[in-house]
Amino acid sequence: MKKIMLLLSITIMFSNCGTSQNASSNSKKAIPDVSYFANTIAAEHLKDMLYTFASNEFEGRRTGEPGQKKAINFIKDHYVTMGIPSPIADGDYFQEIPEAFFGGKAKASENVLAYIKGSEKPDEVLIISAHLDHEGVKRGEVYNGADDDGSGTVAIIEIAKAFKDAVDKGLRPKRSILFLHVTGEELGLYGSQYYADVDPVFPLENTVANLNIDMIGRIDAKHENNPNYLYLIGSNKLSTELHDLSEAVNMKYLNMEFDYTYNEDNDPNRFYYRSDHYNFAKNNIPVIFYFNGTHADYHRPTDTPDKIEYDLLAKRAQLIFYTAWEIVNREDRIKLD
């Protein structure tokens, strides 16, 4: 009963979030509410980006290789066009990772960083992450990685665009947001490890949470008859408050089915340890890992953009945007248990 009351109270609080920041009814130019910005995340935008990002031209985006260099410039160009700056230096969106860090597995590579500065608590940062790399070319075949993790990459860009639109219309988030595109995930979570362990551009103690997106564009066999779902991993492992916030956001806006199968401590797949959120979780930063599950094209050259469910990808990205919106605009930062 206490948990139900908590969820209801959070939901009521959210019903006022965003609109409380709006102009008064007497204002000549009202500021749109959060749903307006969420709805700018569109299937056609995601499809247009992903058909380029997961094309053969990008050669499977293997860490350190020419296709991966095309990928980081593709991401950078979108942030430049949107007018979203880098936190590293003016015009420098690349966090350089030396070849030695990869232990012989790859050449030197780069994470891509962009951010929106908070209005009231700029030193507190939410990180939204996804990995930009994939398997490259094997035996003459391009492993395009449309779902893994082209879907997460383009979702972040659309989420960033929605936040920038809010800023341009007078609703800057209270906290800062780092849009973090990491390299080297397929080789062993190297890009997120470099950020967390070697060069955290924003101090980890000021990082309020990490929302990590890795494969959100497909439907797995379990949910073929119910595609309105998403696997969530890690949401309650460090912060019950984050878990409850996530549930309340979903209940208020989209009412998707959250599947926690892979969140179980005894999950044999060990997905909690297998994507970039883990390098934040091990540092006691609350995380949520968003995932559609595996499918027949997982880590195969057949993971191509024509198989992505773009309407579903947009809806999942909207959910993550809503969750991020609440995290960065609430009065207190997410608490650890």
UniProtKB/TrEMBL annotation:
List the InterPro entries. EF_Hand_1_Ca_BS, M28_fam, Peptidase_M28
Q: Does the keyword Signal apply?
A: yes
Q: Which GO terms describe its biological process?
A: proteolysis
One of the entry's Gene Ontology molecular-function terms is:
metalloexopeptidase activity
Sorted alphabetically, which keywords does the UniProt record give? Answer: Signal
Which Pfam families did the record assign?
A: Peptidase_M28 (PF04389)
Signal peptide span per the entry? Answer: 1-23
Q: Which residues form the Peptidase M28 domain?
A: 111-322
Query: CDD domains attached here?
Result: M28_like_PA
Q: Which superkingdom?
A: Bacteria
Question: What is the name of the protein in this document?
Answer: Peptidase M28
